[in-house]
């Protein structure tokens, strides 16, 4: 069995410099190809084909110290043979959470998409970096096509954008763009001499707003949270008050971050009314088209202007990253496979499922719907039997919160260990 550490010279006439073979050693290509073939078969059998099997466990749960021993995580001086590496791969699959499992429930997951999976296989194999057309021609055009279609759906005639690693980074981009629009000199001169900048966002906003303010040097104390109504929507009149308060303090309001679909309640802020407030005070409302001017560093070794093609396709200067992954390709592949109507059907199904869940919650004793949803987010309480006859009030809610806390920290795990059950996850039957 050939291990990956075993190297063979690529030519008969070996060239040596300081004892190092320059035209070798190289990894044994045949052995490497065989490992890829075996590993792909393992992934297909143990991940893809079992993804929808409800008889499989969601997770083969092990405590951290035990899992460290099972995985043999130590890195050694010498490499391991391929059969041992395949065992490692099998263990990684076995002890990982199967996020595609029908009974896996967590935010930010939506099951297995076969087309996006293939797209990820391809991009990992090709290993592109999306910053210039010459090194990533296909994926830059793919991203352009996806963004163009998304801008069209929003209803804009023009726009700009890039795919980011996630919502937190996107919010940071928006904050930095708004600041650049307010004071373009910050790009060269930095924070010195700037007034105290204030931004406004909903009290129900994503936690990344404070994180972004901290990272960008704005400061978390300069994030003003605007009161929301009973459905979790930002109140425009309260926004107006907060803006005026900031101005009286001598601070400089520069940004309002509205939200369409808040993290918990799924609330949609009243964008038209918020836009009116922003227009009155000259505030930036989280709509971004300044990527190039804000982030451009004009790295001459990458972004030469005298190339043999249209250099407007070199989009790397729009990003704070250099080596950016082609995430748009996954979305493009799924969109090509399903079509716009297929994607629409997925959204409609998610909303229909949310309405179904609401009706089922209303029928069941011990479940209390928090509010009628306007999106796919469903907020409800499970009321244990010991509290169901108790009148709602401070004592009731204090006890309910205590039960919920115990549930989350796993103080009283459900004893009837069903297959795939994780002790750290709360079960609705743990309180009597």
Automatic annotation (TrEMBL):
Q: Record keywords: Lyase included?
A: yes
Entry's Gene Ontology cellular component terms: cytoplasm
The GO annotation for biological process reads:
carboxylic acid metabolic process
Q: Which Gene3D superfamilies match?
A: 3.90.1150.170, Aspartate Aminotransferase, domain 1, Type I PLP-dependent aspartate aminotransferase-like (Major domain)
Question: Per its UniProt entry, which superkingdom is the organism in?
Answer: Eukaryota
Tell me the GO molecular function terms: carboxy-lyase activity; pyridoxal phosphate binding
Cofactor(s) demanded: pyridoxal 5'-phosphate
Alphabetically list the UniProt keywords.
Decarboxylase, Lyase, Pyridoxal phosphate
Q: How does it assemble?
A: Homodimer.
Q: What does the sequence similarity comment in the record state about its family?
A: Belongs to the group II decarboxylase family.
Q: What is this protein called?
A: Glutamate decarboxylase like 1
Instruction: State the organism named in the record.
Output: Muntiacus muntjak (Barking deer)
């Amino acid at each position: 069995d050939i291990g990956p550490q075993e190297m063979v010279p690529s030519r008969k006439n070996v060239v040596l410099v300081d004892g190092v073979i320059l035209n070798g050693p190289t990894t044994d290509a045949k052995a490497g190809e065989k490992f890829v073939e075996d590993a792909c078969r393992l992934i297909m059998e143990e991940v893809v084909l079992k993804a929808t099997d409800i008889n499989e466990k969601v997770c083969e749960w092990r405590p951290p110290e035990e899992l460290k021993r099972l995985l043999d995580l130590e890195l050694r001086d010498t490499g391991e043979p391929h059969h041992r590496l395949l065992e490692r791969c099998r263990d990684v699959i076995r002890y990982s959470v199967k996020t595609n499992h029908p009974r896996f429930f967590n935010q930010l997951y939506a099951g297995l998409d076969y087309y996006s999976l293939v797209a990820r296989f391809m991009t990992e194999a090709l290993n592109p970096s999306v910053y210039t057309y010459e090194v990533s021609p296909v994926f830059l055009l793919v991203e352009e096509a996806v963004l163009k279609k998304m801008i069209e759906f929003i209803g804009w005639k023009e726009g700009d954008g890039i795919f980011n690693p996630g919502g937190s980074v996107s919010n940071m981009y928006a904050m930095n763009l708004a600041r650049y629009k307010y004071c373009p000199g910050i790009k060269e001169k930095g924070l010195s001499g700037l007034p105290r900048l204030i931004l406004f966002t909903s009290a129900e906003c994503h936690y990344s707003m404070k994180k972004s303010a901290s990272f960008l040097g704005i400061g978390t104390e300069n994030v003003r949270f605007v009161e929301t109504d009973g459905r979790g929507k930002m109140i425009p009149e309260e926004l107006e008050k907060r803006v005026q308060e900031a101005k009286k303090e001598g601070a400089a309001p520069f940004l309002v971050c509205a939200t369409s679909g808040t993290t918990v309640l799924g609330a949609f802020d009243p964008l038209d009314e918020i836009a009116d407030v922003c227009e009155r005070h000259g505030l930036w409302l989280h709509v971004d088209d300044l990527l190039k001017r804000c982030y451009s560093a004009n790295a001459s070794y990458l972004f030469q202007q005298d190339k043999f093609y249209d250099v407007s396709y070199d989009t790397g200067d729009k990003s704070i990253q250099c080596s950016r992954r082609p995430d748009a390709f996954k979305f493009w592949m799924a969109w090509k496979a399903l079509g716009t109507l297929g994607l629409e059907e997925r959204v409609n199904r998610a909303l229909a499922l949310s309405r179904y869940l609401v009706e089922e919650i209303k029928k069941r004793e011990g479940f209390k719907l928090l509010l009628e949803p306007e999106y796919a987010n469903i907020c409800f309480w499970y009321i244990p039997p010991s509290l169901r006859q108790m009148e709602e009030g401070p004592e009731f809610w204090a006890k309910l919160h205590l039960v919920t806390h115990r549930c989350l920290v796993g103080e009283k795990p459900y004893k009837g260990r069903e297959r795939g059950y994780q002790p750290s996850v709360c079960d609705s039957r743990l309180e009597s």
